[in-house]
Amino acid sequence: MQNKKKIYLLIFIILAVTLTIEKFFAHPHFSNIWNTLPGADIIIGFAGAWLLIFLSKIVISSLLQRDNGYYEDGGEDDAE
Q1: Which residues contact 60 (CB under 8 A, 6 or more apart)?
Q2: Torsion of the alpha carbons at 25, 29, 35 and 40, rounded to the nearest 10
Q3: What counts of helices (H) and strands (E) characterise the chain?
Q4: Backbone angles phi and psi of 10, in degrees to 5
Q5: Tens digits of per-residue pLDDT, 44-67?
C-alpha cells in the first residue's frame, strides 16, 4: 500500500511540474477553446491514456482470457 501512495504522489508531482512549466514558459496558442485553460493538454492526455488502458483491459481480457477451468475440461471452447 505504501508503494501505491508513492506512485500517486510521484504522478501528482510530475503533473504539477508540467503544469507550472506550461503556465510560465509555453507560448500560448489559442486555436481551440480548451487551450484557454492552462494544462488542458496535460489533462486531456492523462485522461486519454487512462481511457485507453481501461478500454484495452475490457476488450483484450474478453478476447484472450479463458475460464478458470479451461485446461481441466480438455481445453475446448465448445465442449459437449
Answers
A1: none
A2: -30
A3: 2, 0
A4: -65, -45
A5: 888 999 899 998 888 888 888 777
Question: In the block, which residue shows the cell 496558442?
Answer: 29
Question: In whole angstroms, what is the distance from residue 78 CA to residue 80 CA?
Answer: 6
Map 20-51 to HEC letters.
HHHHHHCCCCCCCHHHHCCCHHHHHHHHHHHH
d(C-alpha 43, C-alpha 26), whole Å: 16
Kindly report the pTM of this predicted structure.
0.51
Instruction: Give the contacts of 36 (CB within 8 A, at least 6 positions apart).
Output: 30
Q: What letter does residue 65 receive in the DSSP assignment?
A: P
